[in-house]
Design brief:
Length: about 400
Amino acid sequence: MTQNRLPLSRFTVLDLTAHRAGPTAVRQLADWGANVIKIEAPSAINKDKGGLTGSRHGFDFQNLHRNKRSLTLNLKDPEGKAIFMKLAEKADVIVENMRSAVKYRLGIDYDEVKKVNPRIIYGSIAGFGQDGPYGKRPGVDQIAQGMGGLMSITGIPGQGPVRVGIPICDLTSGMFLAQGILIALLDREVTGKGQWVHTSLLESIIQMLDFQASRWTMGHEVAPQAGNNHPTSIPTGVYPTADGHINIAASGAELYKRFCKAIGANELLENPEYQSFEGRSKNRDELNEKIANITKTRKSQEWIDMLNEAGVPCGPIYSIDQVFADPQVKHLKMAQPAKHATLGEINIVRQAVNLTGTPAPDRIARATPELGEHTDEVLQDAGYDDAAIKAFRDAGVI
C-alpha cells in the first residue's frame, strides 16, 4: 500500500499488546506511519473470543488496531521465540502490556531483547507499575479509576463514587507511553542507545488528576465531588434551559461581568456577595440557582448564540450521535473512513493531532487486519523462504 511519507515511517514497531492501554499507545505510532507488526497467537491457541475490546470485527477492536500488519507467532515455542528475536534485531520499538511477570517467563523482556539490539526502545504498561507491593497484580481501568482517586471526585455530591464514562486510565496510560517512546527515540539520536520506557494505569491517572492532586500535595485539601460544577471556577457548570441544558463558563472577574450583562442580570453583578471570587465560591449554590432561573427562560441555541457573541464560553451538551452531526465536527473530519476486506467501508475515529507539513491521510491507510493476515509477508521480509514458512505453519509455530 502506497501513501505519502509520514513522520514515523522509518520506524518498525513490534506490537505485543492486547486489551486497550497498550493498543492505544501503538495506535499513535501506527497512525503516523510506523511499520507496525501486530504479533498474535496462532488461531489454534488464540484465546481472543471477545474480551475487553469485543470481537475482532467489532467497533472497538477495529478502532484500536488499524494501520498494522498481523503476524501469528507462538512465543512459547522455541522457534517462535527465535523468530521474534530475529525481528527484534532490526526493530526500533517493542510495546507490551502483559502482566509484569509474563515477559520474563517468555524470555522476551527488555534485558533479553537488548542483548540482540541495544538500540531497542521497549515500552511497557502495567496496572500499578513494574514492581512494588502491587507490581504483580492484574490491573484494569475501573480498578485504577478507584485507586487513583478519580471516582471520588466524579459525580453528584453525596451520591457515592462514579466511574468516568470512558476507560480513561487505559487511554491516558497509552497516550503517555506513546509520548515516552517518542522521547526515547529522540534521545537515541543523541546516545545511540535504547532504553526501557514504562508507565502504569495508576501513575497515569494520578498525573491526570492535575490540580485536584496538587490541592492535596500542596495544601492537604481533599477535593470533594462537585457534580457538573467546575470544582474551583465559579460560575462554570451545567444550566437548564427552556428545552434542555447547556454548559456555561463565566469564571473570572471580567468574564463574570460580561456574562451578567449578556443575560441582563445586573442584580447579580451588583450584589456584593458575588463581586469577588471568594464570594461567588462561598455562595455558589445560591448564585447557580439564580442563574438557572434566568437560563430557563430561553432555548439552548438562543443562549449559545447570545453568549458566544458576547465572548462568554457556552455550548451544547450532546449525545454521541449529535457530536458527529455537529458542523464543526464534520469540518474536522473526526469520523475517518477505512476500507475493510470483510466489513467493507467503515468509519472510525481519527487522530486529534494535525501536522501541516506531513498531514495524515484523509482515509485510514490500512484497516485492522485479520488474524495472521500478513504472516507470510512479514516472515518473507525477515528473510525466511517459503519452505521455512511452511515448516513453521506445519509445526504450529505460526
